[in-house]
Write a structure and sequence with these properties.
alpha+beta, about 110 residues, globular
Length: about 110
């Protein structure tokens, strides 16, 4: 073992501890009581953010404009994000397979 390698053991108590998902409400950071904010949704959100940033799976520009217009007038919009799902509106509305958590707009593949 070289000098740069560190070995440690985590206890089962620490490893299995559920930490609350924190969200911003106004100027405060508080634990979320919304079941939409879970580890799974955070991973999905991170993947969506990466896809949007890398221009992978991007919706048509007309779809993006229509989605953003809906989000701009929505009561669940809190600054740059959605209080229902926690996503950044700019990124979520760009992705073709995303849907509004309130059903106000669908994924491009679900449109009729």
């Amino acid at each position: 073992m070289n000098k740069a390698t560190l070995k440690y053991k985590t206890s089962d108590a620490i490893e299995n501890t559920e930490l609350p998902i924190m969200v911003q409400r106004g100027d405060d950071i508080v634990p979320s009581n919304n079941p939409a904010f879970s580890k799974r949704s955070l991973l999905s959100g991170a993947l969506g953010l990466a896809k949007s940033t890398l221009n992978i799976g991007i919706a048509r520009e007309s779809t993006v404009r229509a989605r953003r217009a809906i989000c701009e007038s929505c009561d669940s919009r809190k600054g740059k994000s959605c209080s229902e799902c926690g996503c950044y509106i700019t990124h979520k509305t760009r992705l073709e397979e995303q849907t509004c958590p309130l059903g106000k707009w669908l994924a491009e593949s679900q449109k009729m």
